Amino acid sequence: MSKIKVTPAPINGLYIIEPAVYGDSRGYFMETYNQNDMHEHGLDMVFVQDNQSMSKKGVLRGLHFQKEFPQGKLVRVVNGEVFDVAVDLREDSPTYGQWYGVILSAENKKQFYISEGFAHGFLVLSETAEFCYKVTDFYHPGDEGGIAWNDPEIAIEWPNVIGEYNGCADASGYNLTDGTPLTLSDKDQKWAGLKDTFKF
After folding, report:
1. Is the distance from CB of 48 to CB of 136 less than 8 angstroms?
2. Of these residues, 100, 113, 133, 174, which one is catalytic?
3. Helix, strand or coil for residue 66?
4. How far is the C-alpha of 112 from the C-alpha of 108, rounded, in Å?
5. Cβ(33)–Cβ(42) under 8 Å?
6. Is 139 an active-site residue?
7. pLDDT the model gives residue 1
8. pLDDT along the chain (200 residues), means of 10
9. Are 122 and 57 contacting, i.e. CB atoms less than 8 angstroms apart?
10. C-alpha 11 chain-centroid distance
């Protein structure tokens, strides 16, 4: 019997995974990954690398994708809370350019599987967040691409973010509703929009 609940998202290739959590007065136990359970739900990906990052409130990482060596990603949060987003970049997909987002937190223990062919990013909503993810291909230096997090053509509804789009990915003038400045890397503030990144 499977110990996980798998819910397909509205965009094909995205899945919300909820593990069984066994708790008592001492705390809790859960399996964060079980290959047999995944196979039972038709998820046959093979992971080759685990990654972990820590980010402060207001940090937005993304939107990233891999150009020649695309990665499937199983992501979760072990401390704090983030809003996690995937954008469909598959040229032949009926949902090309559309996005889907989900709250991941240490409290809800949800996981998000993002198949190959998506851009990915997340926004930290808690004071800090520790973000863990398994990937289906190794990291290849120089293979990363990106899309502007605030591209109006994609129109992601980032929670608690206020500010006015000024024609680029620059985070200047954006902050969370509590006044926390939005923080992006220099690289993430230079990505172009979808139509300027992919010319089909």
Report:
1. yes
2. 133
3. strand
4. 12
5. no
6. no
7. 63
8. 90 97 93 94 96 98 96 98 98 96 98 98 98 96 95 97 95 96 98 86
9. no
10. 14
Structure tokens at 125: 């909503």
CA distance 15 to 74: 9
User: Among residues 15, 64, 113, 174, which one is catalytic?
Assistant: 64
**Residue with token string 């400045």:** 181
Q: Tell me the torsion sign for CA atoms 41, 45, 48, 52.
A: negative
Structure tokens at 76: 């979760």
133 assigned to active site:
yes
8 A C-beta contact, residue 153 and residue 133: no
Residue 62: name the closest of 101, 13, 106 by CA: 101
Per DSSP, the chain holds a count of helices (H) and strands (E) of 2, 15
Place of tokens 């979808």: 194
Tell me how far apart the alpha carbons of residues 131 and 112 are, in angstroms, rounded to a whole number: 12
Q: What residues pair up with 175 in beta bridges, in sequence order? A: 162, 181
For the chain, helix, strand, coil in percent to 5 are 5, 40, 50
pLDDT given for residue 198 in this prediction: 84
DSSP codes of every residue in 91-105? TT-TTTT-EEEEEEE
Q: Which residues contact 83 (CB under 8 A, 6 or more apart)?
A: 101, 102, 103, 104, 122, 123, 125, 158, 159
